[in-house]
TrEMBL record:
This is DUF3149 domain-containing protein. The chain crosses the membrane at residues 13-32. InterPro entries: DUF3149 (IPR021494). Pfam families: DUF3149 (PF11346).
Length: 49
């Protein structure tokens, strides 16, 4: 397992893979937050109709 992290953070391909993983997780967190906030605002708007 230690060798895996050593390879991930020491090679160019490993660093690029780590960057892609981080960006993907960040995008996923953004979209979850975005969708949940819009669902909540739409639900509140429909309740006030």
């Amino acid at each position: 397992m230690l060798n895996l992290f050593k390879d991930l953070f020491s090679s160019d391909v490993g660093l690029m893979s780590a960057a892609v993983i981080a960006i993907t997780l960040g995008m996923g967190a953004f979209y979850v937050r975005y969708f949940l906030s819009h669902i909540a605002s739409d639900t509140a708007a429909h309740r006030n109709d």
